[in-house]
Amino acid sequence: MGSTNLNMRKMGNAMMEKFNKYWEEKNNVMVIATILDPRYKMRYIEWCFGKIFDTYQVGIEIEEVRGELEKLFEDYEMQHRERKAAQSKPSASSSLTTDRSCSLPSASCEFQSYLSSTEANPSKSELLIYLDETNVSLADKEFDLLNWWKVNSHRFPVVSRMAKKFLTVPATSVSSESTFSASGRTLDDYRSSLSPSTVEALICSSSWIRGAHDGSFTYVEQEDDVENISFPKSLVESN
Questions:
Q1: Could you report the per-residue pLDDT of 152-198, keeping only the tens digit for each?
Q2: pTM of this structure
Q3: Cα–Cα dist 202/183, whole Å
Q4: Is 169 helix (H, G, I), strand (E, B) or coil?
Q5: Helix (H) or strand (E) holding 99
């Protein structure tokens, strides 16, 4: 983009335009998954964004990620509270017994009840506690991410549920896009009348030919007067 060559500048501008098109609608799923890895957390995102964006844009991007993360945490925390409330709903008789056991003046009893109800609301959220803690060392080659969350789930019950949701195998559109690309190479303006069975045969044949180069094919010995034919291993093993 800063080249003195006009053609190179045009090419760079066109590439940057396409790049920006893909970054306009961001999906922060992978960003949040990275934050939920105790080796990286928000510090890694800040470092990466500092490499990609200018100083002004970094602040905007970080605030957007923080806002999305906090909103997500609030939703999970609400679900967690509702689940705990349903599990520990006191009966009428137990609450009556509690009221009778309070020998303090009424105002003191009310304050004691208030303290009990607010004990589960720490001044610092679970998410902030997790983010503020020191990162796990990247030098630990035996680190097991899922086991870390299993061990620390009692400390971070809400955040651990978020981790369970986001640290699964991410969905990808590569396979479907690759399929459409392959069909586009098979069907074009000059071969638009091929039957579905012919298209299927061409795509399968192309896949088999490519597979022959990576060792995923094997040879099946036929009769002496018949040429050897290569088949996919999956077909040979299934038979």
A1: 999 999 999 999 999 986 655 555 556 566 667 677 777 777 788 88
A2: 0.57
A3: 9
A4: coil
A5: helix 92-101
